[in-house]
């Protein structure tokens, strides 16, 4: 375990002390859990991005041509 000093606004510090006490925890544990959760989320995102980028591209349509931008945004066709 590593000790870290953080600086909080007085109102935030008061709120987090009360919240931690109500949840039978400590401010230190709360901050540690929040940072660990953020680390896992970021690693999960990075892993998913690497998997996505490693996959071969899949054609959206087989054969034929894609519609032109003007055709897609022509409001007359929507009526």
Secondary structure tally, helices? 3
The overall strand count is 0
Instruction: Assess the beta-strand content as a share of residues.
Output: under 5%
- Main beta sheet strand tally, sense and closure: none
List unreliable stretches of 5+ residues. Answer: none
Query: Percentage of helical residues?
Result: 55-70%
Structural class based on helices, strands and sheet pairing: mainly alpha
Gyration radius (Cα, Å) is 25 Å
Give the integer mean of the pLDDT values. Answer: 88
Overall shape: it is elongated
Helix-strand string: HHH
What is the oligomeric state here? Answer: single chain
Description of the molecule:
With 79 residues, this protein is mostly helical. It has a domain at 8-54. Helix content is 57%, strand content 0%. It has helices at 10-22, 27-54, 69-72. The longest helix has 28 residues, at 27-54. 0% of the residues are buried.
Kindly summarize this structure in a few lines.
The chain has 79 residues and is mainly α.
List keywords for this structure.
79 residues; mainly alpha; 3 helices; 0% strand; elongated
Question: What's the arrangement of secondary structure elements?
Answer:
Layout: H1 10-22, H2 27-54, H3 69-72
